[in-house]
Design a protein that fits this description.
three-stranded antiparallel β-sheet, Serine Threonine Protein Phosphatase 5, Tetratricopeptide repeat, single chain, alpha+beta, 242 residues, Arc Repressor Mutant, subunit A
Length: 242
């Protein structure tokens, strides 16, 4: 099958691009495309029920037919039908697929750190930013958690090999992805320590403390307080255990 020039970007805002140009699509059409990219092949009734859960099945199926017709007027190279099943053409490039492959390779690959590849572009962007649908929110949380885990895994492997400078971008990205994650922040503190950068470590600790207090109303756990107190005894006047 010939390679498609269609590229679907779901990290950050929804974008469908062809040859470097963005195709403008109605929101309903974009939701249909995104649902198939995220959930995989679905029957017409499954797709209709997912996208229009509040109406009757007949209404939902009618909405689906209208949406498919609108999509066909713009491109026939994106969604294919196999009987009752809807699916994206396999040749469509989807950024979430590339990110998922990188996550699996990084977490489960187990190869030497020298074989690590940098994460795909937009790794820190949330899936379909601003979309409130439950199926989007659930997958957004799932993808964010796995992305942060992969970034932490890469940082930890490099740190264990004594390569903190190479670990730093992964640690920063992990904290950017999950700012309230104690494990991500602990790794970043250790990276700063191994790089001989105590001021950055203390600033990161204070930033993390502020996020926890603002978002969750709690201080850092004693173990992460102990980490920075052990690494930087000079900072104990500003770092207090709970």
């Amino acid at each position: 099958m010939a390679k498609s020039d269609l590229e679907l970007r779901l990290l950050g805002p929804f974008r469908l691009r062809r040859g470097g140009s963005t195709l403008a699509l109605p929101y309903g059409v974009a939701r249909l495309i995104a649902s198939l990219a995220i959930m995989g092949p679905m029957s017409r009734s499954q797709t209709a029920g997912l996208l229009w859960p509040d109406g009757t099945e007949q209404q939902a199926l009618a909405n689906l037919r209208t949406t498919l017709s609108r999509l066909a007027r713009r491109t026939r190279e994106l969604v294919e039908t196999d009987g009752d099943i809807l699916n994206l053409f396999e040749t469509t490039r989807v950024d979430v697929d590339a990110l998922t492959r990188w996550i699996n390779d990084t977490i489960y690959g187990g190869g030497p750190a020298g074989e690590l590849t940098g994460p795909p572009a937009d790794v820190e962007r949330p899936l379909l930013a601003g979309w409130p649908d439950d199926w989007v929110v659930d997958r957004r949380d799932w993808l964010r958690t796995l992305t942060a885990q992969a970034l932490q895994s890469a940082a930890a492997r490099l740190l264990a090999l004594g390569r903190p400078a190479e670990a730093l971008p992964y640690g920063l990205a992990a904290v950017q992805t999950e700012p309230w994650s104690e494990s991500a922040n602990r790794i970043l503190l250790e990276i700063h320590a191994r790089r001989g950068d105590p001021s950055s470590a203390l600033r990161q600790y204070e930033k993390f403390s502020g996020i926890l207090l603002r978002e969750l109303g709690v201080p850092p756990a004693p173990d992460i307080v102990a980490v920075i107190q052990q690494l930087y005894p000079f900072g104990t006047g500003r770092v207090k255990a709970v």
